[in-house]
Structure to design on (460 residues):
């Protein structure tokens, strides 16, 4: 139940606390996904599944869906636990807390870029085993990152769009989007040539192009923010 | 009329003349390409090249030669327009709207050309047997038009003299639209690339078309809505 008697300063302090907590929980979830994957692969190599009569091919298909389910459960938990109350989504309140919110979204962008790059490397290196689930998750993550770079939190909510929309922010997002657009166009042209010469590499090359066109503008945007002297 | 107005009226009159001349030359080039392509198609179907022992592929190298010679040795422009940067500030400000409208028309023409070329090149790519040297030329024209559209809309090269706040903002928005639509198109093409490799070429043509056309269309509509 939300307390209604909190002052704006208390709400800002609570928002900062919640953000730190959500980052730590996300990090733990990320580490646990990596640990689970390593454990799964090592169990597969040692033949533990066969000992318990589990079909390895079926387990291979089920495991990515298990991870997606796990992340889905975490997403629902995060939505409930860290849901921003209506009073803290008002543009008037958000404007008092601009620098902190910008800093938080910069961290989100950076972390998402890192995860997207790792996910892409993972997808590209397993050429023999590019299943639909992992391809879908990589593409979804990269497209989310592109949306985040272009529109920031404004792509999620109207009040964020109203509050976090100063001139500097718009210029920097446009610069990042322009770089992303150029990279994506050049990447698509290179992809066309790759498809003509080495069609078997087209799938991996598409993900690399998407990753470059999403992650590089994200880093460029964060760099622009840092150079322009945003606080935190 | 002030001196500035007279200067602008004269400048525009000469500009319109120059544009008409350019349009006429482009029309002649297009007619030449259309007629020579039709003759080529007729000659191929009739077996003319085979009868005379001439390699069909030579056509794509010989066809552009008259155009190149005409461009290099042909008539020079009769009236020399002053360089835009050299115009006085008072005149340049009055000209901005006029030039941005003109630029918008150029983008629109490029967009129509891109749609026509995409349909043609897509039809050629659909039948791998048709991908001869002529298909390669069509592909090169397609790529050229895609990147021309992209640069004319998002990067606006070499015309910084006309930049105003509104245009910079509009180009930023067009870049965002192009970026998101291009990535969405790549994401949508990915299943085809992964599961149906025979569709990959066609899917990538669609992706490149979306990447070139989306910001151009956005730019034209936004410019029109802004009431230029």
């Amino acid at each position: 139940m939300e307390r209604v008697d909190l002052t704006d300063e208390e709400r800002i302090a609570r928002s900062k606390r919640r953000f730190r907590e959500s980052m730590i929980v996300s990090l733990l979830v990320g580490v646990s996904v990596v640990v689970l994957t390593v454990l799964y692969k090592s169990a597969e190599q040692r033949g533990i599944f066969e000992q318990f009569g589990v079909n390895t091919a079926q387990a291979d298909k089920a495991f990515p869906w298990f991870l997606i389910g796990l992340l889905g459960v975490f997403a629902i938990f995060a939505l409930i636990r860290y849901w921003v109350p209506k009073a803290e989504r008002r543009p008037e309140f958000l404007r008092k807390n601009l620098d902190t919110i910008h800093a938080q979204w910069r961290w989100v962008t950076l972390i998402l870029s890192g995860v997207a790059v790792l996910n892409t490397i993972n997808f590209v290196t397993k050429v023999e085993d590019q299943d639909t689930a992992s391809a879908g998750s990589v593409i979804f993550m990269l497209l989310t990152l592109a949306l985040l770079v272009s529109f920031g939190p404004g792509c999620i909510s109207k009040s964020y769009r109203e509050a976090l929309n100063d001139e500097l922010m718009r210029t920097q997002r446009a610069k990042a989007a322009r770089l992303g657009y150029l990279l994506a166009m050049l990447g698509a042209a290179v992809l066309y040539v790759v498809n003509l010469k080495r069609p078997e590499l087209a799938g991996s090359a598409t993900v690399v192009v998407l990753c470059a066109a999403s992650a590089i503008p994200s880093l460029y945007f964060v760099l622009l923010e840092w150079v322009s002297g945003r606080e935190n | 009329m002030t001196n500035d107005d007279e200067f602008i009226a004269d400048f525009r009159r000469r500009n319109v003349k120059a544009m008409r001349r350019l349009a006429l030359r482009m029309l002649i080039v297009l007619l030449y390409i259309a007629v020579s392509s039709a003759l080529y198609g007729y000659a191929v179907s009739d077996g003319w090249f085979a009868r005379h022992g001439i390699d069909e592929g030579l056509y794509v190298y010989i066809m552009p030669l008259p155009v190149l010679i005409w461009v290099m040795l042909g008539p020079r422009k009769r009236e020399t327009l002053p360089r835009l940067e050299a115009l006085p500030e008072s005149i340049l400000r009055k000209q901005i709207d006029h030039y941005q409208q003109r630029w918008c028309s150029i983008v629109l023409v490029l967009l129509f050309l891109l749609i026509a070329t995409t349909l043609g090149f897509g039809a050629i790519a659909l039948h791998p047997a048709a991908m001869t040297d002529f298909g390669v030329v069509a592909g090169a024209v397609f790529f050229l038009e895609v990147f021309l559209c992209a640069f004319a809309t998002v990067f606006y090269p070499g015309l910084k003299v006309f930049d105003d706040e509104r245009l910079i903002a509009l180009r930023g928005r067009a870049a965002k639209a192009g970026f998101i639509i291009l990535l969405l198109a790549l994401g949508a093409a990915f299943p085809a690339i992964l599961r149906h490799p025979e569709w990959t070429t066609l899917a990538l043509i669609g992706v490149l078309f979306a990447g070139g056309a989306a910001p151009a269309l956005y730019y034209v509509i936004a410019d029109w809505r802004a009431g230029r």
